[in-house]
Design goal:
The chain is an alpha+beta fold. About 35% of the residues lie in helices and about 20% in strands. The chain contains 6 helices and 6 strands. A 6-stranded mixed sheet has the order 1-2-3-4-5-6, sandwiched between helices. The mean pLDDT is about 90.
Length: about 140
Amino acid sequence: WLIEVLDNQTHEDYELHVPDDFIKRVEMRMGLNKSFVPKTAHELRCAGKKLRNCVGSYAKSVLAREKDIVLVSDKTGDLIICIEVCNNEIKQAKLFSNAGVEKDIVLNEQVKSWAKKAELKIATFDVNMEEPEKTEQLIAV
């Protein structure tokens, strides 16, 4: 709690002004998970700390409309995926500590399905585009 207070005092917080049409296109359920767009610089910094990646430093780029960030939380509300979108293309899709979503077959397939519904092209090696072998784990999704 105290570290968060200090972070708020040392970093400016501001609205990211993400366009409503983008938000409506990308915010949805992904199985038991949910995708959503961070609305403030503070929310983006917290996501970077939680996922142990550099997404917290992207606020000015998001504000300048150079890129968008989509976060995915699990059924308990914990962040599990961070997706960078630029020009309707997924440029990064990261799990905890910058691991690509290809490391988790179920999440990889959810991101592929989500991208199709959101009309986004996958332009990263973070997502395995090969068809998975049918496993019990994947069928459970």
